[in-house]
Design goal:
The chain has one helix and 13 strands. It is mainly beta and 264 residues long. It has an eight-stranded antiparallel β-barrel with strand order 1-4-5-7-8-10-11-13.
């Protein structure tokens, strides 16, 4: 039996010369975008009492003020042809979370409304984050794909700028989250392949589960009397490593392109 007859290709299919190795797209990425702290509409509370036939009441209201911030990220990614978990990335990111609160106390005596007392709170926190994501990639066609999945982020507040408001009676109050946060998040992206070794992928991401500190799985961030949901909107530029399966073919006098495909 000749050497050619003894050769058996791997069972995995794909890969260079069909040897069973997984075909992959991998490389590094850089992303830029905005953050949006989506605030719960408001918190309210009323306190009243009677004294000598007069009714005294104070109505408390705290309205969340949503604001935009900035973010940037860098890391590595890998995509395979596996059926389920076929996308993975990890990296570091910078996030700037901004928001505020309008706090009002309105007094009244015997239903006659007095002059309201108002305060304004705000926050602007700068964070460094480590991220790890896995998910499923669905190819719409040769140039477009969808990705959705779950990830973990560990955030550290490097700079905090917070202005307090007063506490609404009998309502939970925090001047801001802990300096270290561990969360599980969900992400969804749409990838567009270009004619060069570049993939452009817009992504939306938001936390869904608090891991550290564990606060009854609440995935929003408390500032003063109101809570905010971080939403990350970013565009990721993914640079394919030479030899990735989605790299564009180049002319080769031997008739074999960089992906191992011969003349058809």
């Amino acid at each position: 039996m000749t050497n050619a007859q003894q050769y058996k290709p791997g069972k995995g299919g794909g890969g260079l010369y069909n040897t069973g190795q997984d075909q992959v797209d991998k490389g590094w990425y850089a992303g830029f975008g905005i953050t949006y702290m989506l605030g719960y509409p408001k918190e309210t509370n009323s306190v009243s009492n009677d004294s000598l036939g007069n009714t005294y009441q104070q109505d408390y209201e705290a309205k969340a003020k949503s604001k935009f911030g900035l973010m940037a990220e860098i890391g590595l990614f890998k995509m395979t042809d596996r059926k389920f978990i076929n996308y993975m990335d990890y990296g570091i990111a910078y996030k700037w979370f901004r928001g505020g609160e309008d706090y009002t106390v309105t007094p009244s005596i015997n239903s006659i409304v007095g002059v309201p007392f108002e305060m304004t709170g705000s926050f602007g926190d700068h964070l460094i984050s480590g991220n790890f994501n896995v998910g499923h990639r669905f190819d719409k066609n040769e140039n477009t794909f969808f990705v959705n999945g779950l990830g973990l982020n560990l955030d550290y507040h490097i700079i905090t700028g917070r202005t307090r408001t007063a506490t609404i009676t009998e309502k939970r109050f925090e001047n801001g989250p802990n300096s270290i946060l561990g969360e599980m998040h969900y992400f969804f992206g749409i990838g567009f392949k270009t004619k060069k070794r570049l993939i452009i992928m817009p992504i939306i991401e938001t936390p869904i589960f608090a891991i550290f500190p564990f606060n009854h799985i609440v995935s929003t961030h408390q500032y003063n009397n109101t809570r905010f949901r971080p939403i990350l909107l970013k565009v990721r530029f993914m640079f394919l490593k030479k030899g990735s399966k989605s790299c564009p073919a180049v002319f080769n006098p031997m008739g074999i392109d960089p992906n191992g495909n011969g003349v058809k």
